[in-house]
């Protein structure tokens, strides 16, 4: 008997509230696998970046990039369609 068949048989015998718990647990396991895969990809990317021996980015460079991005967004909002407001959206 395959594992899938065994699981289906066992699930069919459980009350609905227990089936919900099983579903929650399976979703938890899937999310954990996704996080672990993302962490592996991040580690690989960091190793590739490190191998490039680039100089570190300074706080001033980060701030300048953020300000430049904000200014581009402001300009894009002002140049938007005629019915769009000429100012950026306010945050809630």
Walk me through this protein's architecture.
- The structure is a single chain.
- This protein is an all-alpha fold and 92 residues long.
- The protein has one domain (12-77).
- The chain has three helices and no strands.
- The protein has helices spanning 3-13, 16-51, 59-78.
- The longest helix is centred in the middle third of the chain and has 36 residues, at 16-51.
- It is elongated.
- The relative contact order is 0.04.
- The mean pLDDT is 90.
Number of E strands: 0
Terminal CA distance = 56 Å
> Rough shape?
elongated
Give the quaternary arrangement of the chains.
Answer: single chain
What would you report as the Rg, rounded to the nearest angstrom?
25 Å
Low-confidence stretches: none
Biggest sheet features = none
Count of separate structural domains? 1
Structural class: mainly alpha
Percentage of residues in DSSP E strands: under 5%
| Helix-strand string | HHH
Query: Roughly what is the average pLDDT, rounded to an integer?
Result: 90
Estimate percent helicity. Answer: over 70%
Number of contiguous helices: 3
